[in-house]
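User: Please fill in residues for this 117-position structure.
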């Protein structure tokens, strides 16, 4: 078994958060999701925009669509990947650190959008 400091755990958590968001929401990974689901945005009368998802296909294709549309589901797999990389491929730490820094930047951006409107 290995020892994990609180800062290492924090870095892994942020890396997992950012990787999950990258896979489930970011436009740059749309090619990964497009075979499995269709995403549309509907603006309601009150101005709120709702993200609607239609999952394609049946069987494994449908399962992948369900996985890729759910940040909770994808987050589990991303956490396993990040943890495995950290434990078994120590040279991956700079990549995990980069994801963690990007995760912090994303959280700061969301916070500022909430405050500044």
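Assistant: Residues filled in for all 117 positions:
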């Amino acid at each position: 078994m290995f020892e994990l400091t609180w800062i290492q755990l924090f870095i892994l958590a942020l890396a997992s958060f950012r990787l999950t968001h990258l896979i489930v929401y970011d436009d740059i990974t749309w090619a990964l999701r497009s075979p499995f689901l269709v995403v549309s945005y509907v603006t309601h009368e009150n101005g709120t925009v709702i993200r609607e998802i239609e999952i394609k296909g049946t069987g494994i294709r449908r399962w992948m669509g369900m996985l890729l549309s759910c940040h909770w589901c994808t987050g589990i797999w991303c956490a396993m990947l990040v943890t495995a990389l950290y434990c078994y491929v120590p040279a991956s730490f700079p990549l995990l650190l980069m994801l963690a820094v990007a995760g912090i930047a994303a959280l700061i951006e969301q916070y500022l959008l909430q405050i500044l409107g």
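For context: The chain has a mean pLDDT of 94.
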